[in-house]
Amino acid sequence: MGTGYGIEEDWRHGMYQGPDLVVQGLVNDVSSISGIGQYGIVDHVGRFEYNDYVGYGLYEHGFWGRFEKFGLTDRASTFPTD
User: Fold this and answer.
1) Banded model confidence at residue 1, pLDDT cuts 50, 70, 90
2) How far, CA to CA in Å, does 54 sit from each of 1, 20, 46, 64, 67?
């Protein structure tokens, strides 16, 4: 499932893929994408149910900036474990 932010050439937000199911994969060499590691987006593909309805989608979250109250003072910080 593409993020839609333009990292994937053919999976941008709202891009029509045609009437048929499209299944494909993408594998990147870590060194070629090191510059985007700072974005910290976490994507989860999910199945959602409500009464008799079933849908599939992308649940996404991330954070940017300094969160000093949590010990995250710069982009090199990791979350404290104690």
Assistant:
1) very low
2) 18, 19, 11, 32, 37
